[in-house]
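User: Hello, can you help with two protein structures?

Assistant: Certainly.
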Amino acid sequence: MKVKITRKQAAIIILLVIIVPIIYNKTAGYIMGLLQKRAMMMPKEVVVDNPGQAEEFITVEETGRVEAKYSVDVIARVPGFLIKKYFKEGDFVKKGQSIFQIDPREYQIDVNNAAATVNQYKALYVNAQQELNRANALVKEDLISRSDADSSLAARNQNKALLDSARQQLELARVNLSYTTIKSPIDGRIGKIKITEGNYVTATSGSLVNISSTAPVYVSFSLKSSDFVKLLRSSDKNLKDVEVKVQFDGGNWYDEIGTIDFVDNQIDKNSGSIALRAVFENKKGWLVPGDYMKVKLVSPQKVSYMIVPQASTKGDAMSGYYVWAVDGNNKAVRKDIKVSDSINNNWIVEDGLNSDDTIVVSGIQNIATEGQVLKIIDNEEYTKKLNAGK
């Protein structure tokens, strides 16, 4: 049987084909919107916990430079021709060891002349003393006047003064002679010679050679003020009990522990750091002055910290960090925190939290705004739902 469709019926069918999907979509969208809105109103599931506590040794790493405890530029104390050296460049020398010889002959002549002058004035002094003794004896017998005895006394005193002066000149001549043998003032390694034998040297000629001590040595470095204060908090002896370790370029740590022996009296206003210095016995001699080392400082005792998982925080070092806490009505509360360092994927919290605060440790992505109602579940249930969602 053949069905005839009128033009009006066809128009109605076409209209229905167009309108019905539109009505369906709008209805479905409205229903989905209601469902989503209802879902949004449902409390979001989160896992909460209190801030944790950790006890750790404070460790701080900086770059330091090895310095000689003593570094001496050897100069000539008397002028003369440098005629000999008694060392090889790079040798270790002992304090008092002869290292250079200046031609001593003219200084020996000065000593001989000064000694002769001493003998001359000594003879005159002895004679003047004898004359004074005789004069004193004759005065007692009224054989000479008192003025004659006084003249003898003056002559004796004059010759004594000349003798004393001559002895001083002899001592000076001997000192100058001793300066012709230049000796090492310290124990240490001697450097490259700067003025060779055959040259005429004076005190103004400058350094002949440098000697630097090798044991003990200093390692100097600077600490940021915040690190400095953290170490002070863990020390009972103003950092004297802090262990100092140094690391070589190859990554090996020196097996000797150093101690801090100097702390500057103020923080540099430009760098915000403070200068410190550690001393090492350096018995093996592996720490060489001028070398740069990694310096690690370890506090003498553990310090308690409040910590929160890094994954539970938002923000950054520039704008600051915050966590979501939960109040008594299970509503989200933003807590701005101040962090100082990290320990095992946890932030150390310096300020902003109390130990009894309840913070969100999992599910922070479900929190959109402060005041949002939350549903607290345990970590096991949260993990199961998270895995099921995946």
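That covers the first. Now for the second protein you mentioned:
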Amino acid sequence: MDKDIRGNDMDISDEDSMDWLEAVAKKNTGVPARGSNGRTALIKAVMRNDAGAVASLLAKGADPSLEDSSGKTAAMYASESNNQEIIALLNEKGGM
């Protein structure tokens, strides 16, 4: 599924978030885009415990301080899952 990446109008629902993450990584754009729930690609990658995607998105400039519509950041989701690899990645970028 090839998604059109245009920033804030991206839908990153659970069904297509991996396609979306792949498109973001391939095109190196849309990193700050948000889904209808306010979740960024970084937050979605953290929620999926995908350290590779987290590292890639951070390298592309994803902002770990952005909050979703419930006020949670990527770091908050990482803390909830206690994924030490992701926590370390976010610590390196000042997101914890």
